[in-house]
Amino acid sequence: MTVVACLGGGQLGRMLALAGIPLGLQFRFLDPSAEACAGEVGALLVGSFDDEELLDRLADGAAVVTYEFENVSVAAAQRVGAVPGSRALEEGQDRLREKELFKRLGIPTARFGSLEETGLPAIVKSRRLGYDGKGQRVARSAEPLAEDELAEELVSFARELSLIAVRGRDGEVAFYPLAENVHRDGILQVSRAPAAAGADDVAQGYGRRLLEELDYVGVLALELFEVDGELLANEFAPRVHNSGHWTIDGAVTSQFENHLRAILGWPLGSTAVVAPSAMVNLVGSIPAIEQLLALSGAHVHLYGKEPRPGRKVGHVTFVGASEETVAEAVRLATS
Predict the structure, then answer these.
(1) Is the pTM for the entire model greater than 0.90?
(2) Each residue of 257-306: pLDDT tens digit?
(3) What is the DSSP string of 209-240?
(4) Hey, what CATH topology would domain 159-334 get?
(5) Residue ranges of domains in the chain
(6) Does domain 2-82 have CATH number 2.60.40.790?
(7) Residues 37-78: tens digit of each pLDDT
């Protein structure tokens, strides 16, 4: 059996395993929590990501080691030879380095730096460890920034988009169509794909520059704002991504299977769309399963996590469904 090891045992690791088990793969995870939900689909090592003995046990006998979230330490990723490589973590973990990378590659982004450089109002973000709206605030007057903070121009965007890209070990690149995303309280609520009039060619050009600059292998997500018809890069995630969950049911090959194909050196699968799709996140609580399954065409994915405020506990995908059905799913998920 081919073993894939993963730093992190959350829902992304769980979905990687669910995609890989039918391909004959086995999975091993390292996570600080004994309740990590990926433990239901693979062996779970419990402990710190900085525990060298556990890292060595994780990697022992594995065909490849990957990670399911970007706040793994660079040293840990380097010790186990993780794929994607640690360069992507180094750039993606620090918002300033990330913005400077965009600028260097000619990928448009909002102004960033000090409040004098961005103008007011501005978004002030922690340079590290921010996700799902955490670690950020709006500044409406001049104020000193902490050493670990970065200001970004507050742009008035028409919509938020994301590109899911994948690059194989041989340099083969493939893209899923752009998804249009709606957030609530800083957390993704709904993704719809393909996005209408999505400027995919422009986004894919940006994605290709990132993949090639980082010598990247695996799935990468690029989050974008559409501002006056132009795409501005917000941030990238060096991993499978929430806005790509629709691909499990709505694409020929899911982002999870393609990540595994890429890091193992296997041929990439087709990223073609089966039909227009929408994904609704379940955050904080889970509606009655009977209500979800009563929705026409619902594909329910629960993560085996205990509900609590702000926690992603599942999602529902609709392939070719009506907007009324999606709206009802959102109502159930937020009521």
Answers:
(1) yes
(2) 999 999 999 999 999 999 999 999 999 999 999 999 999 999 999 999 99
(3) HHHHHTT--EEEEEEEEEETTEEEEEEEESS-
(4) D-amino Acid Aminotransferase; Chain A, domain 1 (3.30.470)
(5) 2-82, 111-153, 159-334
(6) no
(7) 999 999 999 999 999 999 999 999 999 999 999 889 999 999
